């Protein structure tokens, strides 16, 4: 096989595997970003954090109703605790995602990507 | 409330579901720390091939065509070592003694034999001298009259101040009203209730229960990677019996090829909803799209994954599981109504139809999503390694039949549809 073609195929394989790993990391991140409170399921994202922070800033913090991922209204007893919890979970999940992603970027062959 | 995980293992010619179940149970113990019940039609195989199964399986449910043991009969005498079925559980007799603890013929004694009693009701005529029971007191009517809607205390003399009703909690020495007569109780109600209960001081419950179920045989294709396929026996409809089979009040049912690598499912037992199941799932290949995993057909209803679901034993979930039995029995009818192309009975389809009906023939919130994202690899992918919480797959390459790319997951629960490769990987891991 032409050496140029062989290298191109190797690179293509590497890129597919790299994308597989990126997808796997993203799934792990999404899984780690789900927060459960009072029977409700909340995906921690920028929207949720901003909205909750706004309510806290407006000092509406006790017995606040939020709509969860399943569009069910959930009463949150103390929104400050809720905000603190989701921020903690967000930092943990995103830091882990960042670290794993950085490790991935350094790898230059398929074997190293899946070690 | 008892909580646990239920799995089903019905082996076919080539797939050892029992082996998969043991591995899945090990992962359950590690991440969820809950008791595991396994329903299987290969009980003797389980005992012989995996003698240490009790380390991971807390309760075995034997699926049989004909009952192995007779139902417990309180009127019979049993020898020590006898085994019977009582409330679906197998019991072994360990001590001598009569089956019935009390002589029920002598448990009560008729008293005040000359008196016949009527319960008080509003707006009825009463006669002088009539014996009337009201609010746990026996009265004698002192004048004939017609009652209003309130009890007229001034028309009565108290005869016996404390007379219980048969439905009350009765203790030894109480006088109670049964029908129109008065009785003296020689025993407690609790003992009366236990009239036909097995004596736990004589019988020991074995961690085995038995369910009689005639599994129908279907055949389907199983792939082992993109290029190898086999046509094998497929019997999975017993899953619709989960409500009756489960020894737990709150049960998480998982497929034996669903491998748990994190503790997210623990939240099932903390949340308030009675039935949880996923309708959304992610194929880890990243490129495959099967519309039949979203709706049952082009113009049909939402698809739900029966791979993992959680239920509490409530009236509503009982109705649901009973209805699944009806769907199973009339599968061809439902298949046509819901425009399912394939004649093969699948739990995913039956559950989807059942949920649609429970929601009042529309989209609704009778079910809620499980606290996990449902991730899967198909049987055209190959699992090549499984260690700690990491799994390594060869994922079928897009547009290149028989070629694969590597994918590693870490701490993710994955539904591994290629059971052959899962089995190989489990064996390899065990031999290391």
Which sequence of strands runs across the widest sheet of chain B?
A: 4-5-16-3-2-1-19-23-21
Which architecture name of the largest domain in chain B does CATH use?
A: Alpha-Beta Complex
Beta-strand fraction estimate of chain A: 15-25%
Largest sheet of chain B: 9 strands, mixed
Sequence stretches where pLDDT stays below 50 over 5 or more residues of chain B? none
According to CATH, the fold-level topology of the largest domain in chain B is Spore Coat Polysaccharide Biosynthesis Protein SpsA, Chain A
The amount of helix of chain A comes to 55-70%
Q: Strands of the largest sheet of chain A, in order across it?
A: 1-2
Q: List segments of chain A where confidence is low: pLDDT < 50 over at least 5 consecutive residues.
A: none
CATH class of the largest domain in chain B: Alpha Beta
- H/E series of chain A: HEEHEEHH
Overall body shape of chain B: elongated
Largest sheet of chain A: 2 strands, antiparallel
Oligomer class: heterodimer
Question: How many domains of chain B?
Answer: 2
Shape of chain A: elongated
Question: Structural class, judged by helices and strands of chain B?
Answer: alpha/beta
Number of extended strands of chain A: 4
What is the percentage of strand-forming residues of chain B? 25-35%
